[in-house]
Each structure stands twice: as structure tokens, then as C-alpha cells.
């Protein structure tokens, strides 16, 4: 196997790039970048800057600015991502409450803000104040009764439909790429794929606006995944301002990795979790330098969000909890059970959602995205309104489920029967028998759980921005809270059982149902996304529950094991495969005993490989070859007889070089000889001027022999990010293997449809 470390070809490439060729070194849409080439170009650029910096003070200052540009980009990404997240949070709060009523003193206040400013609010009725009026009070001056309920119900549905229709229309007309979560595409882009416009300015603007609308509409989706897309759009925008990143696709992807970390940082108020999420889940190439920069971007983003203080509690998150009871070893059993539930729910969700999305792609359903969004929104609003746990925003629901029941809690979930003789401190309330409110809440939660499980399957993947983190956490939190209340009541009524005897004495505060909700949320999120380390860190940063890392770890690992038993793919990988993107997953193992010769093209019975010769083809021959084929590049050989390999020429650069030569060089005509050698070939006296294209030739293409195991070839493609690899025997060219060939072979070996891989 020839080592690609020798970059002779790239040095020549830089000479070619120094000439003012438009679009040179760029890639076509829906194509994969060449990581080795991008790396060598950056090394050459850096070498040139370093050598120039010794010539003058100005060049030295320019070299310093170049070195600092990375940190400046991170600072700008953090500031913009944090600001956008804060604005989205504030807007969502206001528009969610707008479905139920309006603040008379200032219509731009949410329900909570409206009652903060009121002097007539009592502690017991802190959600009620004269300044905040429901629509029925405002329109027909009635707050109770059937007519008021029906009017509020009707307006709730109307507002939801209005928000959803506006969102899907904006996406459809202005930015089709603003739909979905964005994480599958971000993963694919970070692996080296080009999707032009996916991280553009219009996508950023429309995704930010429509994200507010869809979350406010009450649909079963979250804003956390799309915030990663928004942050990456910010990263792409600021990258384009610095030539170091705008002209090098490999360097740009380092910035996007850090931007993804900033996105999770502001989505969950979890800067360290964001860095780990980018490292574990999203990034393909993550050098140490990117780790530091991700950390800095996540820090700035979190600081900016904290300065805006969207939740009004001086914290980065909505779900901050403080539990006053430690957990006990016996509780690990229900925690692991929640992990099993999370794994099963993850598997069920992925299979059903992918089946529904495939149906959407292959049937007439996909032709009516607006109608689908309106229908799902109407069903969601009609079913959600009667149940208080589905009517409120999902974030508020999770917050309530995570909460511990203190003496000041007015939630139904905290309606326990109190002992009148209790003289305990406020924060150490013993376990008590459940009151009627808890039993009502339990069956309402059970109905909400079934509804959330079903509706999320149909909601994720519609043509609107839709995140999956919050709905998954809500499913787990509801299941966890119910299990927690069950264990709590079991411990209260049967404290003499052997499992409770050692740690749960009568009158003690033993079980915290909120902790079970937290563990359940982590388990379900882990089951759907297959995250482990970053998930646990995000969860304890999200809630402040540092003491509960072991239960969270137990649930996350269990949910991953259970889900992996049914299939290795997480939801994002499943959507990548559904869309046919060329993504070589690092986690996939290739264990089959095939060889490079089994995969390379041309295969037996196929036409011979299209090649260029080093000094015997005319400009017309090359143009004809380009016109008649759609390959991304052509191997260059000594002659068609010897087929000894010289190098590799990219299709795009051949087209640009010939076009440029025709415009700028006199004497270059259709029958001019094209040569890739240092010296021109000997030509008859009256021959037209030859065209030298050695500058665009990669003299060190990556090659393997025909007997190289495919296991090794897959590893090379994965670790070096190759676009193609040439197959030789004793220096003679036999064939070529592209990334698409590798992915199709892997799909075939896994008994999947190889034609599902659609892009190069």
C-alpha cells in the first residue's frame, strides 16, 4: 500500500491555485470532500504564512491575526448562538401562553411575567392575577362554565393551527432545508459531504423564526436539536468571513464541530455536555485543537444565554432541581427497569418513525407537507387540551415531573395526605400516603404517556423544524414519575418488607419520585439517540443533580444495551441511511472476508476504466471523455498499453483548467496535445500549442493492491476520509474504489438495498 503522506501533488496544486481560477479547489453539491487534500492545502498555506512572517512587521502581524482568527470565530459563534437561543426561549414562552390568554398591562408579557408585575397576586393563587385574562374572560367576560371552556378550547386549536401553518409555509417557500432536526445532515456534513445552502443565511433566519412557531403550537417536538443546526449556521456564516476557513472545507468542518458544541450548550445550558456531544455523537474529525475551541465556544454561548436570563431564575436551565434525599442501592433495580423501558421505547420509536418517513417519501403523502402538518397539529391540539399534562409546554411538563414535592408545591402530583402532627423542617417532608390529586395525576399521566409515544412517531420528520430531545425526555419523565410514585407508596405502606427495612423507616423521606423522572428521561433519550457519556453529563448539568450520576449512568448504559440488542442504529444514523447520504459510521464494524478486487470497478463484463494518458490525448479527447462520463476524476497512466499509474486528476479541475487555457493561452485548440509530464512531448513542427496540466495532477493518489482485505480498505476510507482509492497490481492500474462503492458493498453484506446509497 502506498503511503499518501508524500504530498508532491499538493505542492503543485497550490501553484495552480495561486492563479486566479474561479471556483478551483471547491466541490460540487452533493459530493464528498477530499480530507487529505484539504489537510495538505492548509499545511502549505500555513508554511507560506510562517515563511512570509519573517520578511516584515506587517507580515508578522498578519500571521498573528491568522493564528487568532479561530478564537475570534469561536467568540462570534458563542455570542450569536447564545443570543438567538435566549430570544427563542423568550418568544416561545410568550407565544405558548398566547394560546390561552393575554396580558392586559403589556401584551408582550407571558403569563408568568404578567403576574410577577402584579401587586394583587397571592401566594396560593400565584398563577391568577387580574392583569392576565383568558380569552373567554376577555371576549365574553366568563372565566368558568361550559361556554368559556369551549371558547378557550376552540381558540387554543386555532392559535396552534395558525402557528403551524405559518411555520410550514415559511419553510416551504423560503428555506426547504430548515425542516427536521438537522442533526443527521450536520453529521453527514461534518463527515465531509457538501450540501449547499443547508447552513446558509436564509436557513438560519427561517429556522430561528419557525422554531419559535412550531414549539409554541404545542406539537410534540423540541427546540434542542434544531438549535444545533442554528449554531452550525452561525458557524458557517462566520467561517465565510475568514479566508482560512472559507477556502478550506476541512478547516470549515473544525469550526462546525465547535458550533455544534455551542448549540447543545445553549439548548440545555450544558457547556461540557455540548463539547462531549460534539465529540461522541456529531463530529467525524475532532483534533485536540477543536476540543479547546469547542470548549471556548460553548463557554461563551452559555455565558451569553446566562446574561439574557430567559427563564428568570438566574440559571441556564428550566429544569434545575434540588433533591434532599440520597438514593439507596435497592433503588438501582427500578432505575435499571427504567433503562430497559428507555431501550424498548427507543427501538419502537426508531422502527415506527423510519417506517412512517419511508412511507412519506415513497407515497403521495409526501406531496402534501402543509396538509400533513395541519392534520397532525389539529389532532395534537384536540387531544392535548383536555389533559393538563399535555396542554402545557413540554418543557414545563418535564420541569414539574422533575420537581421534588416541597411544602410550598401546589401541583396535583404533590397532593399527599399530610400528618397534622408533623413538625419537620420544610425541606425534609417524610413519605406520605397519596391523596386523590396524586391518583388523578397518575391516570392523566398514563394517558399523556400513551399520547406522547404515538404522536411523536408521526411528528418527527415533518417539513418543519423538529427536535427529538424534549419529547423523548418527556416520555421517560412521565414513565419515571409514575414508577417513582409507585415505589414511594410501596415503601410507605410496606416499610417492613426486607427490601425497605434497612433504609426506609416509618416517617422518613426515603423515595424521591422526581429522581425517577430524571432517570427515566435519560433512559429514553439514550434509547433513541444511543448517547452515553455526553447524555449523562448533559443530564446532570441540566438538572444540577451531581449526586445522582450513578443512577443516570446505570439507566443510560442499560437503555443502550437493550436498544442495541434490536439494532445498532440510533435515530440520526437511521435518518442518514433513509436519505441515502454517504456516511461511513465509525461505530459500524466490517467483519466480512472480501478483497478490494471484489468491490473495485470495472467488474468483469463491464467496460474498461476511463483513464487519461500522460502525453497522447488531445483537448478534444479529454472534453469528450468528460462529456460522456459522470465520474468525479480520472486516473492518469503512462499509456493505454502499459497502464502504469502516474497520478489522479479531478474532473472539476480538468474542466476549469481547459476552460481557463482556452480563454488565456494563445494557440490552445481542440487538437492541442494535453500532457501531464514535466517536459512537453516531441511534436511535429506544425502542431498546435500543447497544454500542460501537471499542476492539477495529484502525484500521490492513495492506492491499494487488489488483494488488500476490504476490512483494511473500509478502515482507510473511514480514518483518512478518502473520496476514492485506486487499485493496482505491480504498479499497473486495475480499477478504482469510491466511497459510494464501499458503502454499497457494506449495505450488500448487511442484506440491505445497495441502491439506497444515492450520493458520491
Characterization of this structure:
The chain is mainly α and 760 residues long. The chain has three domains: 84-308, Clc chloride channel, CATH 1.10.3080; 333-417 and 427-578, Clc chloride channel, CATH 1.10.3080; 596-750, CBS-domain (Roll), CATH 3.10.580. It contains 29 helices and twelve strands. A four-stranded mixed beta sheet has the order 3-5-6-9. A three-stranded mixed beta sheet has the order 4-7-8. The longest helix is centred in the N-terminal third of the chain and has 42 residues, at 57-98.
Question: What are the main properties of this structure?
Answer:
disordered N terminus, 4-stranded mixed sheet, 760 residues, repeat, Clc chloride channel, 3 domains, 3-stranded mixed sheet, Cl-channel_core, mainly alpha, single chain, CBS-domain
